[in-house]
Amino acid sequence: MAVQAFPTILAKVPPADFALDLIDLLADKAVELDAERLLDQVLSMAACKAAIKAGQKLS
């Protein structure tokens, strides 16, 4: 897999870590997700990772 571009909204998340987590997320799903739900889960995952890296407590 080659990353050719990475959204700036995810700038605080290392692209390699994000790609591996995305693969895990997709592998864990027994059913297909529609694009909107997949995007929601991907952004939620990225936000959590960015918050943890920034040292913020999650609610």
UniProtKB/TrEMBL annotation:
Single GO MF annotation: ATP binding
GO terms (BP aspect): mismatch repair
Start and end residues of each MutL C-terminal dimerisation domain: 2-58
Protein name: MutL C-terminal dimerisation domain-containing protein
Natural source organism: marine sediment metagenome
